[in-house]
Amino acid sequence: MRTELFDFWLPERLIAQHPPERRGASRLLHVCGEVLHDRRFADLPGLIREHDLLVLNDTRVLKARLFGAKESGGKVEVMVERVVGEHEVLAQMRSSKSPKPGSRLLLAGELAVDVLGREGEFFRLRFNSTESATALLERYGKLPLPPYITHAAEADDEERYQTVYAREPGAVAAPTAGLHFDDAMLASLQMKGVRSAYVTLHVGAGTFQPVRAENIQEHTMHSECYAIPQATVDAIREARARGGRVIAVGTTSLRALESAAASGELAAGEGETNIFITPGYRFRVVDVLLTNFHLPRSTLLMLVCAFGGMKEMLAAYRHAVEQGYRFFSYGDAMLIEQVGRALPTA
After folding, report:
1. Does residue 339 surpass a pLDDT of 80?
2. Three-state SS for 95?
3. Which of 48, 50, 198, 319 has the fewest CB atoms found within 10 Å of its own CB?
4. 243-to-226, 238, 308, 344 alpha-carbon distances in Å
5. Is the pLDDT of residue 337 over 70?
């Protein structure tokens, strides 16, 4: 399948640069096969059934961007991709010349960091401190907004580029479908009898990379860490037994669940996933998907086309552009229902 099939025209003015004034004030495109409904995110409780289960990604975005200098004095920008130990990280770096293994960086004016070596496209770095790498990033780092957001992270972004339920630090990008929820919305759904469960998938910077290969089969997918608690597996089984649907809040929640069910049955545990979901994939766990609008030629657009149907999703995207929906991380949302999907048994 050719990558160009997943391209679409998007006016730059529709790329959301800031979140709405308050959480939940965004629009919602409700997609039921070929039928499209223009709604507000506030309408969501009326679209979710009593025994459905929301699965949310509780990852927390690290302050993963650091600025400083090499021992030689040259400027360097560090973008942490993953914390790999108490004091070590894998990171991308921008500098006039790549630092050599054994050299030292001075970041944020006072943070000494040793360059241990290269691992593929990443540098392995060690923080020279008794404090953990995660704690040091929180103190010295900057929030890494997506590349299509043109302003540097501001005070408002510190709050709004995290979900209200974020608790497991490790991502370098937010699970953006969850940004629409506030505590009042979650409480309203709970009052209705909708339960919530959690997975963790630490979103990597690779989520923003377009597919550059001419054919999607030639694309090498990035890898991300995920964890599925036993409580979430049990909650899914209970939802099935009650006749409820599994609603993934975001493509990250969906990828974690489908990765954990790769053997045919959903299992609790931790692991790495580079699952690449494209049209023709058979979904084992997720029945409904809540997601934002994704980049042209991206793996996430391909996933959405696999879930809702390629013709249907590309038509929905054309409709969203025509109707002026806001796109990407701070943009509006879609609720995608698979028409005619038979729910798996418990």
Report:
1. no
2. strand
3. 50
4. 27, 9, 21, 9
5. yes
- The least confident of 170-184, 196-210, 224-238 is 196-210
User: What are 103-145's pLDDT values in tens digits?
Assistant: 999 999 999 999 999 998 899 999 999 999 999 999 999 999 9
Residue pair 222/171 in contact (Cβ under 8 Å)? The answer is: no
Q: Which residue has the tokens 């009593």?
A: 50
CA distance 26 to 176: 12
pLDDT in tens, 22-75: 999 999 999 999 999 999 999 999 999 999 999 999 999 999 999 999 988 899
The Cα–Cα gap between 311 and 309 comes to 6
CB 304 within 8 A of CB 317: no
Q: What angle do CA 229, 177, 329 make, to 5 degrees?
A: 130
Residue 117 φ/ψ, nearest 5 degrees:
160, -175
Instruction: Report yes or no: 80 and 90 within 8 Å, Cβ to Cβ.
Output: yes
How far apart CA 254 and CA 82 sit, in angstroms, is 21
Q: Hey, is 10 helix, strand or coil?
A: coil
Is pLDDT at 208 greater than 90 in this prediction? no
Strands 104-107 and 59-61 turn out to be unpaired
Distance CA 99, CA 77 (A): 11
Domains of the chain are: 3-61+157-337 (3.40.1780.10), 65-140 (2.40.10.240)
334 phi/psi in degrees, rounded to 5: -125, 140
The phi-psi region of residue 278 (left if phi > 0; otherwise alpha if psi is between -120 and 50; otherwise beta) is beta
Coil, helix or strand at residue 311:
helix
338 pLDDT exceeds 90?
Answer: no
